[in-house]
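Fig. S4 source data, part A: sequence.
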Amino acid sequence: MRNTRNNWKDSCSSSHKRKCWCEEHHERKCSCVHEKHHEKEVKRHQCKGCACDQLRRLQSQTPVDVFLSGGQVLSGLFFVNFDKDTCCAFFIDPSTTVPSTLIIDCQDILAIRLLAAAA
């Protein structure tokens, strides 16, 4: 087995010849594959804010009202899912003639009101 820990500079393309996340935080060098893993991990947590954190944990089909940073309120939506890589939150708006999907950047959401599920 090749020692990628010592040869990481030789085996990586020039775009990867920088300290990776693990080296900066754990004082060790890692291979390109390991570095790419950490880049994805760091990118995954790029979505900042309370709303993004809540959407990561929110259960699908939860009824919500969404308060946007521009002052608009979107009422009676159903949360579908959250893409932590793009910061996109997906909601269904059942109030339209044909239910539509809304895609909102979680960083543009100021507040989320959790509504009681209809009985």
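Fig. S4 source data, part B ends here. Confidence is low (pLDDT under 50) at residues 1-17.
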